[in-house]
Amino acid sequence: MADNSNMSKMAQIFSAYHKKSLRQLNDSKKYPGESLVQYNKPVESDLASIRKKQSIPIPSIQSKPLIDDLLNSLIIPRDWEQDGKRFIQTVATLPPSRDDITNLQKQLDERLVARQARESGLCPIRDELFSQCFNEIIRQVTIDCMERGIILSRVRDDLYKTIQSYKGLYNGSIPFGEQKQLIAERGIDEYEESVKQLQEQKKQLEIKRQELQNKREAIKVLSDEKKIQNEQRRKAEIDYLKYQGSHLESFLKQTNK
């Protein structure tokens, strides 16, 4: 008994934020579109009565609630304004059949294609259709077993809060990413300017290297010419000294006779 009561209380807490968001969405809609959730026929009502039905807390299982009240607490009735009149549409309590789930899957696939929902990433159309599909499953399960319907609604509300958190993080990361991109773009300009300067320095160094290489080759040519001249001069001196030596040797031989 206590577990069922705690389950109902936690379900009320989890669904409060989800219901508030849906009421805000209904306030902004003039006429609701088609839904995968099976609803009763719309009924004209005043805004106070509508808000009262949309704010029904999740009843405890021990109180043996009516299926209408339980469904209205798990899946918020939708309302809209038309021709100055306010209408409300509550969830249908018609027991589900085997064909209902088959038709639900078929309708989901058809509407995903018809409304061109993206297969990945953030897509409000896909989120809306899958949310409607989940609510219809909750409706069908709740009619057969109230406890299972309450558990499924808790799972739905927790998933909704998780998705909203991720969306908040994503939306918050966009300005940060744009700021980083601007900083990176400014950095690219600086890097491009630095590249130009380095290329200019490289060009100047290439010119200087070529000048030094030409100078080295010129010095080598002069050095080789000077080396050849020195060798020729030494050879001439040696030849002259040899000639003098042979002349003196002949002279000495003649004087010794």
Give the arrangement of secondary structure elements.
Layout: H1 2-27, E1 43-44, H2 47-54, H3 67-74, E2 78-82, E3 85-89, H4 98-114, H5 124-144, H6 146-256
Antiparallel strand pairs: 1-3, 2-3
What's this entry about, in short?
The protein is 74% helix and 5% strand. The chain has 257 residues and is mainly alpha-helical.
Keywords:
257 residues; rod-shaped; 6 helices; mainly alpha
Can you put this structure into words, describing what you see?
The chain is mostly helical. The chain is 74% helix and 5% strand. The protein is built from 6 helices and 3 strands; from the N terminus they run H-E-H-H-E-E-H-H-H. The protein has a 3-stranded antiparallel β-sheet with strand order 1-3-2, covered by helices on one side. Strand 2 (78-82) and strand 3 (85-89) form a beta hairpin. The longest helix has 111 residues, at 146-256. The protein starts with a helix and ends with a helix. The relative contact order is 0.09. Mean pLDDT is 83; it is low at 23-28.
pLDDT averaged residue by residue = 83
Radius of gyration: 48 Å
Arrangement of strands in the largest sheet: 1-3-2
Largest sheet: 3 strands, antiparallel
| Estimated helix fraction | over 70%
The total count of strands amounts to: 3
Strand content: under 5%
Which overall shape is indicated by the principal axes computed on the Cα atoms?
A: rod-shaped
Count of alpha and pi helical runs: 6
Terminus-to-terminus distance = 156 Å
